[in-house]
């Protein structure tokens, strides 16, 4: 296993440790709650990165907000055909709503308002079709 593989494994295992944490809009602490961006920020900090932490987003979606923040934060864009565990996927729901998740060896891990907590589930064709961009965590 390469150092890069270990880095990606640490990312998704850290995200997996948050499964069951409550959902909280703009939450940044798994003990009190996380949202989809908060999960990414928490994981980044846990693996030694200092990410750009946007707190200026609202529940009402703004087109391309999460994609823009990922770019500003320095998470390199990857090809959608080259996804692997430890990557960040940006998903689109409806016309404007974007959502972020971390790929794992089992599917995706994300803070889901519908279920009220951080969840992990498979990446079936429906979820895969919602992917609009893929980003990797920078190596620290």
From TrEMBL:
InterPro entries: NLP_P60_dom, Papain-like_cys_pep_sf
GO biological process: proteolysis
GO molecular function, one term: cysteine-type peptidase activity
Record's keyword annotation contains tRNA-binding: no
Keywords: Hydrolase, Protease, Thiol protease
Domain NlpC/P60: 20-132
The keyword Oxidoreductase is annotated on this UniProt entry: no
Similarity annotation: Belongs to the peptidase C40 family.
Entry protein name: NlpC/P60 domain-containing protein
